[in-house]
Design goal:
This protein has helices at 22-28, 48-59, 92-95, 105-112, 131-139, 172-182, 198-209, 241-253, 269-277, 315-322, 343-347, 378-390, 401-404, 410-416, and strands at residues 3-7, 13-17, 39-44, 63-67, 76-81, 89-90, 114-118, 143-147, 150-154, 161-166, 186-192, 213-215, 221-225, 233-236, 257-261, 281-284, 288-292, 301-303, 328-332, 352-356, 359-363, 372-374, 394-398, 421-424. By secondary structure, the chain is α/β, with parallel strands linked by helices.
Amino acid sequence: MDQIVIRGGNRLSGRIPISGAKNAALTLLPCALLTDEPLTLRNLPRLADVDGFGHLLNQLGCSTTIEGSRPEDFGRVMTARATTLSSTVAPYDIVRKMRASILVLGPLLARAGEATVSLPGGCAIGNRPIDLHLKALEAFGAEIELASGYVKAVAPGGRLKGGSYSFPVVSVGATENALMAAVLAKGTCVLENAAREPEIVDLCNCLVAMGAEINGIGTDRLVIEGVDRLHGATYAVMPDRIEAGSYACAAVITQGDVELVGANPDDMVATLAALREAGATVETTKKGIRVAMSGRPQPITLSTAPHPAFPTDMQAQMMAMATLGSGASVFTETIFENRYMHVPELTRMGCDIQVKGRTAVVRGVDKLVGAQVMATDLRASMSLIIAGLAAEGETQVNRIYHLDRGYERLEEKFQAVGADIERISAD
């Protein structure tokens, strides 16, 4: 199995291109199932999860063609076309590897009037039930049965209908699935307490480009006027705000100076505020965001919550940054109950972190020491890379397949700004 080896201590300086957002790409790809015309997505990141979703679309009868496939290219252009659907079944073998696969449920139900989708897999960061997905679809007329590990959904008469659903708690995935189901429903669908993440806005904008009628974009109340059909479109995936925030944390912990080219500060308000609280210089440039640091990070206090609050996907990286801080930082995780799995691995590198329930107290230490560590999930993997960049000696990060799910050509981007980092192949 491959591993990443880091010899820490180098100050990062230079430019890092920010790729298309993983979380947005995995939401936009299933939109291709909503029309028989081509959907072309630009700025699509080269990631294992994106490739996996492409295979799932192929399984359902959607053809995919890719441009920009040279190894030296960042990002790709994919055109997906579901002229006809050869299947409405998303099988276990594909879905178990990637939780986002559940997002074909809404589009299949909207387009074909039926869908059978395996219960999903993905990172083991806590309980992430899909009951809200199903309840929202039932509010639009779907009849749903759970059997043998599959969700079986049917729209009586072959088409969903107008209705209203208020989410008891904010759910990004459920909002996305309900949105894609509603755009072809007969009548008006209303979603209350909907997620407001930038990736939701990106999905809405793509659906509108395909002919959908959606009001309230960017708010927690979405009103969707169902249309009879959608058409094809060409759409660019938004920049990855989590990738940009991750590289920003790496710049801070190494007391570096990095420009995040292509990053959108409007999508990263809470993350940039936390970086400033830590003492970093954060500036908007013509091409993105500059993050620079002099001295040790200042203590910070963070609590994760749905957008526009601080994102749970940035918690592990910000914690790694705080391990070399000048005092005690406090983190509270409110989204997932098992998202501190990186803490034992960071402790192996000399970090001082105490966890009690959903709160972690990080007391800054004078130095980190390289060690062999094991990645447990996608964002935890990046936290270990960030710590390794500032640690004395060599850090070996194992189980890096998690990183390949969410960070496009990570080693190359870090090498370009001065990091001593390489991938060692198991072969």
